Amino acid sequence: MSASVERVYALVRRIPAGKVMSYGQVAALCPPLTARRVGQLMARALGSDIPWWRVVGSDGTLRTHRRDPMLAELQKAYLQSEGVLFTKDGRVRMTPEQVVNPATFEVELP
DNA sequence: CCCCTGACCCTAG
DNA sequence: TCTAGGGCCAGGG
């Protein structure tokens, strides 16, 4: 397992409850990984101790819906239970209060 | 090796 | 706001 992949997991584990990060945001902090690859990794993280539900599309949409609409429902339930606010059309409000600020987000390398 | 498929994303129109 | 297209790249058939 590559160092950047380990870094993704370490990073996602540090996203606090009540906040989210986009796939691209995570990828930007874990070069040379791309947003697409981060998505693959999150899909594989189901059932682990990694809070995959705190990673969403850059526009706040729940991309898990592509794989399984029910999974998106589960994700929404988790996020709402953590206090994350949604827009009327079912997307996460991508406000600075809810989105992790990468600049202020220090991560120790695995 | 070719082809296709993703929990993506940004730009144009 | 929304769609289409191109870029992206690891895995699997």
Distance from first to last alpha carbon = 12 Å
* Strand tally: 2
Largest sheet: 2 strands, parallel
Integer-rounded radius of gyration: 13 Å
Q: Any idea what the CATH superfamily is called?
A: Winged helix-like DNA-binding domain superfamily/Winged helix DNA-binding domain
Task: Describe what this molecule looks like in 3D.
- The protein has helices at 3-13, 23-28, 35-44, 64-67, 69-81, and strands spanning 21-22, 55-56.
- It is mainly α.
- It has a single domain, classed as Winged helix-like DNA-binding domain superfamily/Winged helix DNA-binding domain (Arc Repressor Mutant, subunit A, Orthogonal Bundle).
- The chain has a two-stranded parallel sheet.
- The longest helix is centred in the last third of the chain and has 13 residues, at 69-81.
- It is globular, with a radius of gyration of 13 Å.
- It starts with a helix and ends in a 29-residue tail after the last helix.
- The mean pLDDT is 94.
- It binds a DNA duplex (13 and 13 nucleotides) through helix 2, helix 3, strand 2, helix 4 and helix 5.
Write the layout of secondary structure elements.
Layout: H1 3-13, E1 21-22, H2 23-28, H3 35-44, E2 55-56, H4 64-67, H5 69-81
Parallel strand pairs: 1-2
The protein binds a DNA duplex (13 and 13 nucleotides) through α2, α3, β2, α4 and α5.
Summarize the structure.
This protein has 110 residues and is mainly α. 40% of the residues lie in helices and 4% in strands. The chain has a single domain (3-98), classed as Arc Repressor Mutant, subunit A.
